[in-house]
Design a protein that fits this description.
Mean pLDDT: 97
CATH architecture of the largest domain: 3-Layer(aba) Sandwich
Largest sheet: 7 strands, mixed
CATH topology of the largest domain: Aspartate Aminotransferase, domain 2
Radius of gyration: 22 Å
Strand order of the largest sheet: 4-12-11-10-7-5-6
Structural class: alpha/beta
Helix content: 25-40%
Distance between the termini: 35 Å
Number of strands: 16
Bound molecules: pyridoxal-5'-phosphate
CATH class of the largest domain: Alpha Beta
Shape: globular
Length: 445
Amino acid sequence: MEQANHSNWVERSLQHVWHPCTQMQHHESVPLIPVSHGRGAWLYDMDGKRYLDAISSWWVNLFGHANPRINAELKDQLDKLEHAMLAGFTHAPVVELSEKLAALTGGALGHCFYASDGASAVEIALKMSFHAWRNGGQTDKQEFICVQGSYHGETVGALAVTDVSLFREAYGPMLQRAHVVASPDARLAQEGETAVDVALRAAADLERVLQQRAGKIAAVIIEPLVQCATGMAMHDPVYLRRLRALCDQYQVHLIADEIAVGCGRTGTFFACEAAQIWPDFLCLSKGISGGYLPLSLVMSTDAVYQAFYDADVRRGFLHSHSYTGNPLACRAALATLAIFEDEQVLEKNRAKAQALRAALSGLEGDARVRHLRQQGMILAFDAVVDDAAKAATFSRRFFAAGLQQELLLRPIGRSVYLMPPYILDAEEIALLATKTIQVFEQVMA
Ligand SMILES: *Cc1c(COP(=O)(O)O)cnc(C)c1O
């Protein structure tokens, strides 16, 4: 009976739901899992089979599914105000959230502009930078710089600063391409080079472009510390310090896309804190609502805000989305921030990150494993697969094999990564490591 139920939902989904980031034909061989409910770090399907959500449901879930505290706050908010437009109106959740986030930057980024998804936050930061320069009379500053392998979302503006060809290729003619500069990815180290050397080399490449074109450049956009979507490429924080210095020197804005790396993922609440810098714009989404509701925002400096503050309506930032500052989403975010505050999450994560690394130490020195790397609650390694056909299907085979072992992991190419919710207990950490190694063995066999 339940079995029939399960396949029924899968069939109906494949009939009418167009799934994201998916070649739908692959579902002829790749399983589609109908989720019935979630609890903590686990998702349950309609047959009662469970899966350890080791990638936080695409990097959004921080404190588990059906988190009691977030649930309670949302239920309370639901009876007060589900939504009201944010033009001409305001409400407590959006005010409190903006205040709390501003305080987390020590006031450096004191103005929050809201949207619903990450790509929209990136669009907002790009438009704000462009428009701020324009309002200041610098109308030549129309171009952007991004880093090799960058991912900033898939709407047309965000795709223009994205350097993942799989996502961008088909849409080339639609895009106003940004300048792409060298990656600071520590994996690019040559014989005898350190991560710092790679970072400084990459920063020098950026400086060459700025020397030639700074007058035409509005902003540089970066994923601080970890370029996630390209395959968890990690760099030394010295790169961010150089970036900040170069942006100051050449009068260019710095946009930090912390959509994936913010909210404690890399060890500090904001990834930029590891380099002790603040950008001119900081984008947040994904984890900020605890993985509950679509919410994104762009934080900016007083200088940026003042560039728009004027009697002339056209000098204002007229951008909007229907659900800008949705009270339910803001309330979920407030509950998320309250958990960070009350439960010493960043401190506990340090111990969990260490435990996870220790549990996977068996992979060190394995000839089939390259670049075992970690930044806070992100751990990754690259599988060595020489056979081209096997390499091309590695990720799909790993995903399918993982599901058999109650494990939800979706490698990016041959980069296997763990990006679990912060609520894993010691037992779950051990289980995650054991299962990851088991699945790896199975897929490599
Ligand atoms: C996920 C992501 C985005 C896009 O967010 P969406 O909500 O998927 O539009 C942008 N930048 C980074 C770094 C991301 O990881």
